[in-house]
Amino acid sequence: MSTTDPIFETDFMREMLRQVRALDSYGVHDGKSVEQLLAPFVLSKEARSAIPILGDPDPVTLSRVRAFYNAIAVLIEKECGQMAVPLVHLSHEGFGRVIITVGKLLVLDRALRDAHRFGFESFSKMKTEADKQLSVALELAGRFPEVAGF
Amino acid sequence: MSTTDPIFETDFMREMLRQVRALDSYGVHDGKSVEQLLAPFVLSKEARSAIPILGDPDPVTLSRVRAFYNAIAVLIEKECGQMAVPLVHLSHEGFGRVIITVGKLLVLDRALRDAHRFGFESFSKMKTEADKQLSVALELAGRFPEVAGF
């Protein structure tokens, strides 16, 4: 790995890499650089709008949605020391709901729309989004420790 | 309806009936008695074990799982005056997770196993189970009103 961008040294991006590697059961992507492995998460506006939103999103796209929220759940768990359980629920045609629970507390609850087009404009935007969601979740867990530890 | 069993006059069974009727978009079951409409929820031990647990449960069985938890969510909502959102998530082969959230509070969180065989030994057992889950959920909502109202 000859990566120089310091963003790949952050906890979140390291965890994203772990999540993506975990999906690669057959080692198809062995030898690829961090950028190459995480590249599918970056979509320009043009690339996004070129993706049709017909039917259900394909399993590979879904596995990326899961990787993103799994990574956030892992960081929540690390930070607050309690199990964080993610659940990505797609109802139909790319609509759905993502939740992360800690004890009896819903630390993250988001509606999914157009999951077919899941992606971020840049690695930096992806990290910013994850950081934002992480801090809201940790703030909630800190505010209601009794519920989070239930 | 010439029903005499007083169980059908309870809030829960009335709500179950409403849920089942809501699924019947084409009026196929119009004219059926309450017992007939709710009959598929009752499975003897023998009938249960005769159902194979291969592959994913069929959509009709799933709609019954949803009807049961929707009914519980409606009663939670009635009782505590706040929106209760059910989510039935099947991961694979009849395994899954059912949650009901009120605000940021997880008032119900259950693992689903062998959803293919979803059913109860009798109407009375079904109602007892629902009452139990309802009272646990309401107890939680009452204990953490700030989180439920978040």
TrEMBL record, chains A, B:
Database matches in NCBIfam families: NifX-associated nitrogen fixation protein (TIGR02935)
InterPro entries according to UniProt: NifX-assoc_nitrogen_fix (IPR004952)
Protein name (record): NifX-associated nitrogen fixation protein
Domain of life (superkingdom): Bacteria
One Pfam family per UniProt: DUF269
